[in-house]
Amino acid sequence: xxxxxAEAAHHQLVADVFARACASRGxxxxxxxxxxxxxxxxxxxxxxxxxxxRRKVDGVSEKMLAQTLQALERDGFVHREAEPTIPPRVEYxxxxxxxxxxxxxxxxxxxxxxxVQEVEAARxxxxxxxxxxxx
Length: 135
Hints:
Structural class: mainly alpha
Distance between the termini: 68 Å
GO molecular function, one term: DNA binding
Strand order of the largest sheet: 1-3-2
CATH class: Mainly Alpha
Low-confidence stretches: none
Shape: globular
Radius of gyration: 20 Å
CATH topology: Arc Repressor Mutant, subunit A
Keywords: DNA-binding, Transcription, Transcription regulation
Number of helices: 7
Order of helices and strands: HHHEHHEEHH
Pfam families: HxlR
Mean pLDDT: 91
Number of strands: 3
CATH architecture: Orthogonal Bundle
Protein name: DNA-binding HxlR family transcriptional regulator
InterPro entries: HTH_HxlR (IPR002577), WH-like_DNA-bd_sf (IPR036388), WH_DNA-bd_sf (IPR036390)
């Protein structure tokens, strides 16, 4: 392949989340999964040690939080800093990319939180309509 063809081929390798084999799907899953979203949003407030983050993200198990943080670290959203003390002191913080993603997630979270009454009203109306049809 000559230089211009190689450049053209490179430019065609654009991420497309709707394509089955696109790597962005896995990344999006890590970011938008329940625990990924909550961990990133919490870390937007500043660095946390593991147990403090677990308390902040109420309901997450130790195992799920560890897996979530590992995936987010691997994807480049979270930085893990381990100090060689006994016991080791480990702190998690956002990378620049993680901070950008967390900022957008925070906007979505604030939108949902601000409109939750509308969602609840829509759910009630839906359930009532489905209940009426079932009778």
